[in-house]
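Suppose a classmate hands you a notebook page containing two proteins, each written out with its sequence and a corresponding row of structure tokens. How would you begin to make sense of it? This section walks through that situation. The first entry is reproduced here exactly as it would appear on such a page.
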Amino acid sequence: MIPYNKPVLTGNEVNYIHAAIESGQLAGDGKFTYACQELIEKLTGCPRSLLTHSCTAALEMCALLAEIEPGDEVIMPSYTFVSTANAFCLRGAIPVFVDIRQDTLNMNEKLVEDAISQKTKAIIAVHYAGIGCEPIFLKELSKKYNILLIEDAAQGIGATFDNKPLGSFGDLATISFHETKNVISGEGGCLLLNNLTFESKAEIIREKGTDRRSFQKGEVRKYTWREIGSSFLPGELIAAFLLAQLENSNKVKKNKLIIWEEYYNGFAKLEAKGVITRPTVPKNCSHNGHLFYIVLENQTVRERLIEYLYKHQINSVFHYVPLHSSPAGKKYARTSGNLKVTDDMSSRILRLPSWVGFNEMHRVIDCAYKFYS
């Protein structure tokens, strides 16, 4: 059976974990955490990064840093993972869902301005599949209305927009190192601070609302509770595993792009026949091969193909159920305009197996052709 995803070691993961144990520090903010943050800053061009135990945690930190209050509104796509909305709902905000583009499946940037109101505190740009969600356009819009731009770059490490890394455009940005991503640590994430006015407060929030970091740097004689915060740090074992992955991030990206290209070329004839659509990568985007998907004619065909592939020992999956159609989405959020493209594309998309070292793309492609024949 070919699984949809398979976590893979890339180098010194086991050695670094052993070194972390031998160091005598398993709690967060040790030498492996700092080494990870330094590498992330080099990869993203971000001036300051803070490792977190998940991308969800990084998003929750964004909500705290944005000083979200009950009734505030945050603009985002409905076609995203639940954490994008949850982080802000926890502070009492109302997600305002905007439709996506049919080509990239990213939020349609041209519809965002109509969703802005006097209650809007932030725009969340989600970079689906490592394709940039027009961050330059959205940055200008955020400046025009004096609201924050936050990048949910969970899938975006190693990808660029206009030759600038995803995660380097917004006031704040987040990255995921979940085991389904390119660079992994099982669970894990990172907060990127491009606007350094948030740096001091972010350190406090991350350390349970205390100024412990200032105490460690000798800036205060004792640390105490300063702000609302939580325990957002990962342990050193997670950071040790992640460091080995980050050191090989370029190799990971190259391998993922090889897989992506073989799928893309392999499905050309089916697209020419009009039975599927392949992903679109705009010219100003350099993606990271994070995932490969095809869009089918309708939901019924998708269900039949999933079943057919499974019978031939291949796991394939669809992606998000749109948040606006979920019970919590109906309760806590609202939509701006209709979400026809979101409803349509989410019902037809199919993701195919792809992980570092995967080399059976031809088997998946051949099986899909047999289904259509």
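The notebook's second entry, a different protein, reads as follows.
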Amino acid sequence: MKPAARRASSRSASEVQAAIERFLKASPKPALLEPGEELLQLHRDNFVLDSRNARLTIQAWDERRNLVRRIIDIRHESRGRLELVAERFARKPGPLFLIDLARPAAQDWERRSTRLVFREQFRQFLSREFPGWKITELSAEQDLEHSLSPAFPRALLRKGAIGLAAVAAPPDVVDPSGILSFGLIWLDYLRKRERRMAIEGLMLFLPLGKERTTCLRVAHLNTSVARFEVFAYSEEGYTARLDLRDSGNLDTTLEVRRTPAAFHQETFTRLEALGAERVELNNGEASLRVRGVEFAHTSGNEILFGLTDRVALRHQNLAELEQLARELARMRSPHRPARSDLYLRNPEAWLESQVRANIETIDATLLRYPIYGQVPAFAGGERGVLDLLATDRSGRLAILELKASSDIHLPVQALDYWMRVNWHIGRREFGAHGYFPGIDLRDAPPRILVIGPSLEFHPTTESILGYFSPEIEIERIGLALDWRKSMHVMFRLRGAERPR
């Protein structure tokens, strides 16, 4: 059983020193952390505790730093962590932490240390770019209630009755383009919280070389409701405001669509009678699926089948292929009470199969055929969202974004796909590349239909959509929870409308 954490105040220098020595002796990997500074690991030969005239001082150093602080008191003492009160510049007290890195919980402190270091860099960026503004709030802490991420430090700047929201992407963040979702959430939150202040806009800071995606997205926000600016910073800490008109072209390609070969029609018919669905791919091949799970596909003039290792279809193993289709249909049945791995696998693909089969339920103006998947393709082909591209009876393209679970970035992912499709529409490439044959496609920007279970839309979705450009026509379609059994639309919301 862990000992209870202990608080203390006004201890003598000798008592504080004894507590520090006790902690260091019990810690296999002690480290010193001061908010805003990098973590400094302690060894026998890189720190000194000095007590003179009732003043306790700690000095620690490495190849680049030499930290000297007077220790005033102990604020909190627990296993693996000792929070000290140290005297900083101008005799201002501040926290100083001793941490045992050998403990699993110390990993969170290492991450926090990195965040705090970059938070102070962010402070410098803001002071340099906005010299006449006061930084009234700066945080790198998590706020689950308001969906604010610790991965992107955020700030509030103020000049009189005017405010600016600011967010930064650290150099080591996994996906720096996630900054826009959290930035818009922060902007919207401040506008609701600071009723007496006019929050004019959002300032975004990204590492140099990783700003392009965000710049392209920001160019499609509504500048009549907020001011948006993007800054890039270098490894040396220099910052520069970017010209959003000079963001470059989209990294997008539209492959020429190949017509599927007329092989294996009899086999396809037999498998479709067993519950399989045939999806024509843009490369001229066909995929055979049961409620989204592929169990066979064509390759040239052959059919390869299997859930893991694929084998070529021959007359002698046709019964094996049919049995696989039957078993998969049984395991993926929406009426099956058991929740096997096959049942739970890839819910977005199951949702896709339902949308393809019930396209008029989703939108009565859409044509049942053709419907294409992942056109144009993204680099690597991996996204958290499945995309379908359809057209309505007037020849206007519609993007169908499918998501079976909550995703905070869903609106900006839809924006990404809209930008690509719209780019190719402007160059009239869809018809020229073999898509939608016989249909007179319009030059109008595409619509976006975001489709998912009604309770799985993230609560910040409306906040983010409220800042999209009016030229982007987007509709959210919420499905009943039993969408695997049948498709029932629970709500249709345009733009930033909220459910009643």
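A careful reader of the second entry would note: Residues 280 and 368 are 14 Å apart (CA to CA).
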